[in-house]
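May I ask for a single protein's sequence together with how it folds?
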Amino acid sequence: VGIGVVHAGYERRLAHHLGAHSTPSILGIINGKISFFHNAVVRENLRQFVESLLPGNLVEKVTNKNYVRFLSGWQQENKPRVLLFDQMPVVPLLYKLTAFAYKDYLSFGYVHVGLRGAEEMTRRYNVNVYAPTILIFKEHINKPADVIQ
């Protein structure tokens, strides 16, 4: 995940190759696919644009019903599991961007601590529900390898 700036006057061939025929242009490139931003340049529109560039399955929603399956998935994928705990009802963009940056190495799950159905996990792993928390699991699902609060 990164940001780049191209001076269309000095880098005409690159700007033309990217399809930026007018300036200023805002575009996103994910896996070689170019997407153009066509809305008013305000924070919410830019946030939605960046979010629309990302695959929808980067962060799995995790509850008491599926957390054991999620954490046990390391055996099939051979990737450590990361559980993100927060009070937001939707997965924050920062978490999605982090998951995208590390998608080849880690699998991410999101727990909405304000939702009924997260109490068992927060109690079992001693999660502070008033602060964002990250738990990283390797082979053992009973105890995280690392905790970041």
